[in-house]
Amino acid sequence: MTKTAKKENFEGSLESLESVVRELEAGDKGLEESLELFEKGITIAKNLSKQLEEAKKKVEVLTKDGGKLVKAPLKEDD
After folding, report:
1. Would you kindly state where each structural domain of the chain is located, as residue ranges?
2. Residue with the larger pLDDT of the pair 8 and 30
3. What percentage of the chain carries pLDDT values higher than 90?
4. CA distance 7 to 13
5. Among 27, 37, 61, 63, which one has the highest count of C-beta atoms within 10 angstroms of its own C-beta?
6. Phi/psi at 44 (nearest 5 deg)?
7. What sign does the dihedral 19-77-51-35 (CA atoms) show?
8. Which of 41, 53, 51 is nearest to 16 (CA)?
């Protein structure tokens, strides 16, 4: 899988989660459908969290100083 495919997968999953949240916030679903959407949202959120954790580990591994692993925090965009 290429970096582009992974990014699209992450971005696509994030968009799916946002869609689920919008549907739940609309409040026009019945109990059964709301529970299904909630479960779907939880599954997506867990997968996104896992992907973020994997990315964090890769950043830590790739950030080395003199052959020793140096944990460097990700810089946030302004």
Report:
1. 3-69
2. 30
3. 56
4. 10
5. 37
6. -65, -45
7. negative
8. 41
